[in-house]
Amino acid sequence: MHDRSSTGVSGSRRSCGTVAVLAAPCLSLLAGFCAAAATGAPPAPDYAQADAWAAWPGRPSEADVVPPGIVEPAFPAAGRADVFFIHPTTYLFGSAPNARFDEPGITSTQIRRGVLRFQASAFNGCCRIYAPLYRQASIHAFMQAGDAQAQIAFDLAYSDVLRAFDYYLEHENQGRPFIIASHSQGSLHAMRLLQERVAGTALQQRLVAAYVIGYDIPQEIERRGIPLCRTATQTGCLLDWNTVKSGTSDEERQNRRLIWLDGRYQHLPSHDLICVNPLNWQIGGDAPASLNLGALPGTSAAELLAPVAGLTGARCDAGLLRVDIPLTKRRGFADVLTLFGSYHVYDYNLFYVNIRRNARDRVAAFEASDKT
What we know:
Distance between the termini: 34 Å
């Protein structure tokens, strides 16, 4: 890590002052800071400090684990690309609008023992992993009928993500290609980060891909400067899917979902959603279980189990990724949400080995195109 006397907040001010493209976002985030301060926001993380990061290269973390049974050839591009990983909501039981970045108990345990092992680790075969902790919005913010309070919570969370990304760029990136990866709430912030910080800038030339998974991303984001991934080796593109059981409707959740588009939060309905099938890496369509290279059981188990090949196929339909998991194979792939047909928690798990291989393939394709 880098030692410096200034705090993360002062670093953010410096970045806002020197990067013209951030001028408008900074004004928006300042309003969020002020509103959050009035409600007693928790202290901001200082991204110059180790405790502000869940994963950082060279410091052991659960993002380093490789599930049993995975054997990969030496990858010549390994270590030459980075992943900036934005974790999902793990603040499920607190009463505050936003968690502390170092929130103790199950909030922290789920990040370190769950998210890092079952999601972020999918990228350790190709890349160095940077995963900031941030003052995530509580689960209640996604359920509120009143949008104003939710937006204040989202703004505060995003302000941390933006500062972490700028710290990474200033101190660590050094011109390297990078992946942005995220899940759920993390993907809401990634959607905004891509529009405000990457699209139309020099950074976009170094973007390998954006795995913005488990949030409802509208297809029209492509018209805002972020291409959608249409092949397994396309680079500089975005992909997303939301996994449900075949026959399940997700309309109620979609109706209350807020997205970031055109410089503001807005409601999702009337927007066509992205669904890139992680079994063939094409927009839409159907793919058989034979293409599933391995699903990773569990979300916070004490011991990692070997991936299960051929667990389920996948079909994109109406913006959702539909799966059918045989009853006899659901152990390790079931929680309270799956009782209602949602495999949201398993968006990464169900296609873990496919994601792992695809990340390597896209980095290799980027490296090859960069040499031509």
